Structures
1.
Amino acid sequence: MTKVDFYTGSEDKLRTACQLSHKAMQNGLRVLLHVPNDDTADKLDKLLWHYPATAFLPHCRNHEAEASTAPIVIGCDENFPHSALLISLHTECTEFFSRFERVIEIVGRDEADAQQGRLRFKFYKDRGYEIGHHDLAKLRT
């Protein structure tokens, strides 16, 4: 069954997605960064070229030929080349999340995003998924 982890209190959800992708890649996991639109995909693509500052995270878009082997793939649709780790940057649960071994939900600090995060948490919990929680505000202190 899919394991779901919530990372709450993110100051910058795209940067958090990069950090978590980097960590996953270091642990040998392939990542699908699923975004709601092309604008977010473009911003994330640019950020991944410069994160971390001393390295490069190899990545591509899900429609590119390299997607079948790239460690990090950015996508807006249901066309994905693996089912290891889904990092969702949506405000609602994706319809296909259960195809993945693990899902990460990133929740920002503002109240509207926190409320949407609570609804996603309830959705997973009501369906019996194993849920982990990581408070990024506590990790910064």
2.
Amino acid sequence: MIPKLPPPAELLDLMPDAVCVVDAEGHILFVSAGFERIVGYTSDEVVGRRIFELVHPDDRAATMQQAEQVMTGALQLHFRNRYVHKNGHSVDIQWSARWVPEHGVRIGVAHEVTELRRAERELEHLATHDPLTGLPNRHRLQHELQYAIAHAAQTGDGLAVLYLDLDGFKGINDRCGHDVGDRLLGEVAQRLQHGLRQGDLVARVGGDEFVALLPGCRDTQAAHAIAQSLRASLCPPCTLPEGVFRLDASVGIACFPVDGSDPDALLAYADHAMYAAKRNGRGLGDPAAPRDVASGP
């Protein structure tokens, strides 16, 4: 018996990936069985519909732009977007597509990457956040501060940076152990987050050092008021099985552009101002004091 190849559609249905054929306007002409496995819709449910209807609304514009590029003859490899599954959840997909002008169709092959994207997001979070407190880390702070400086320079909305160092934490950590210290740091992180305005950011940049980024903060007096509020949020005692602990913080303030025009300069000024306040035993610099590092903000 001479072997006979099955119809191409039957071969395509064996693929775990989805094969999709659409016309120039994006109307679906054919989908393989893999499309249903990934997106949940059968061929009968989607043929004739525009494929962009199934794309996640946030990714629709970029997907349409990519489709236009494919129709100019560009071979699209590894484009990612999200589709809305028939059950309502999002599905991350990676596409390869090409335009076949002699037939007037686009052919795409899609591979689901939902789990891969989840793992990538976890790695991205680990790279930009402190594992103990969940706050942004120094790397994320630098990125956000650079963006905030550019925005403040363009709009004149103002920008302030607060550098906080916990008072009394080292003694507690040495006396009671790192487990207690870690739990206190977690409590401090929560209190600082709750004490900030919407749009502000607080990062952990060292053992017991935190930096608050205050976009739109116009002057030292406004930053001073927020710093006082943050210190007040730390004052209530923290009760743990090991005892009742009280913390405070020394705070240094730097304002853009008076105290620095780039991330390193602003952080350095706020850091020096914090140590000046700690040495003077004030906890927080006087907003009316001269603007120099020696006296603090």
